[in-house]
Each structure stands twice: as C-alpha cells, then as structure tokens.
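Q: I have 292 residues here and want to know how they pack in 3D. Can you give me a structure?
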Amino acid sequence: MSGPASAPEMDVRNPAVAGTFYPSGAAELSAAVDASYTHRLGPGALPSVGGTFKGLKACVCPHAGYAYSGPVAAHSYLDVSRMARPALVVILGPNHYGLGAGVASYGQGVWETPLGRVEVDAAATAELEGLSGVVEVDREAHRREHSIEVQLPFLQRLYGRFTLLPVSLALQDKSTARSLGKALAEMLRPAADGETDAVLVASSDLTHYEPASRARDKDLALLRHVEALDVDSFYSTLGRMEITACGYGAIASVMEACRLMGMRGRVNAYHNSGEVTGDYEAVVGYPSVSFA
C-alpha cells in the first residue's frame, strides 16, 4: 500500500545577484539599503516605518549594483515609504537575457533574498494574465534576471512581508506597453466601495556607456515625457535620440497605467555612474520618478 501523497514542493526563485549587485549577508544588505538613503546622491533621510497613506504608489527605479544606483532608487522608495504596508507589489523589469516568454509572470512560488522570502501572488498573476492578453507564466524568464530582484531588499526593509507580482519584459514595444498598462490600471484602480493598496514599480536604467553630458541631455529629454505620461512622445524620443534605456517598456507600461488612473509624474532625481566612479566618459544614467 502506498503512503499519502506528499505536498508539492514550493518553487523557490533563488537570488541571482546576491554578493555581486548587493551584499549576500542579511546584516550587510540591510546596512547597504539604509546607506543608500543617506548617501550624498540619495535623499538624505531614512524612511519612516509604518506609513499611513492608503491607495497606490508608483515609481521608476534603476537596477544597477547598489554602489552605483542604490542612492537614486532610495529617492523613489522614500516616497513609497509613506504608504502603509501594501497588499501587493507589482514590479516590471526588462529581460536582459531574452530567455522565456515575451511578457512573463512567475505564477506561484516565492522569491528569496538574504532578507527572507517574498510570496508571489498567484491570484493577482492570474487576474493580470486574463486582463492583458499578453502576460503568460514563464519562470525561466526570471531565473537569471536582476532587474526585479534588486528592488526587493528595499521593499523588504520598508514592509517586511508583502506579496509580489513580477513581470519580465522581453517585448517592450509600444503596443505591448499600452496593453499591459491598460490591464494594470484595470487591476489596480480602486473600486468604488474601497481602496487598492499597492505599489507599482518600473525597473530601468537609462542611457548606457556614453559621455555624461550627452547621456544627461538624452535622459532628461526622455524624462520630460515620463513626467507628462506621454507614451507616444516617449517612444518617439527614445527612437529619434537613440536612447539605450534597458527597461523602456516597463517605464511605458507604468506610464500608461498611471495615465489611465489620472495620476501625475514627478522626477525626484537623476544621476549617473560617473558620479560614483569618477569616469564620465562612459556612464549609465539612473532615474527616480514618482507618480501620484
């Protein structure tokens, strides 16, 4: 006679860049996150714990190693910290490796960082898949990708526990961004009889490996469209100026969602890697934008 069936093993997405993009020890990682806020390029203040805002917070954050882009990300997360613990965090990021589906969610399981595990929200995943028509579950698209992973320790330091909906974008064209943004707006828009408590993050760096002055001119031109939530002009400028933003589809999807929900954009900070390394000949641009 066979014994009782064992419960299925939980799928765990192990960190891909712990020890490289950020520290692999919990204490060191917590210190690195906190130091991003007080860094000379950061907002200059630590976030308060236990915010009171209820509703939706949305932002754009960079995703390089913390030594380079952490202080810029901290500008976005200082604004996010004003929110009470959200029911859901949605993070959109580019698929740098091109593995898996064009627009990939994770389905079920947990994501692990040195600060603990974050549960993937299977119900929210199914809802977004149904609303968008472009999202499909594909865990392999996420296994090596860092753009979503590096946002988690900042959120874990703010909230401890929350549920996650990660979406990796290999397809970043305007049509896909509009479809995904529309679906996100439908899913996250507060109901008439209640509120949606969620955080929506677009993970992206901007111009890659150009002189700092040229990168700044390009990136600030693009960020003007992000503030205005003008997706058409965003894509036009992206192509015309040949801006090498890696997560432009993530940014555009969040722009479209925020536009449909009547929100407005605000650039909090813009810096580049040369301000850390001293090499201004080939920099990467880092943006922080908030939407409210």
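Q: Anything worth noting?
A: The chain is about 35% helix and 20% strand. The chain has one domain: 39-291.
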